[in-house]
Write a structure and sequence with these properties.
76% of the residues lie in helices and 0% in strands. It is mainly α. Helix 1 runs antiparallel to helix 2.
């Protein structure tokens, strides 16, 4: 089953806010930053570091 990235980000953001209660602006910055980094030239380096 293929889940769109935007849907996965919404679910993770919603659960993170409900469970940890961080400020909304912090959640938005982290999610937007992660989304932008995943589509940047740094993505191969990030993928290698995660593995």
């Amino acid at each position: 089953m293929d889940v769109p990235l935007w849907l996965a980000l919404l679910v993770v953001g919603y659960l993170g806010v409900k469970l940890a209660r961080p400020p909304w602006w912090l959640v938005a910055v982290v999610l937007l930053g992660g989304y932008l980094l995943a589509d940047s030239f740094l993505s191969p380096a990030i993928e290698t570091a995660i593995k």
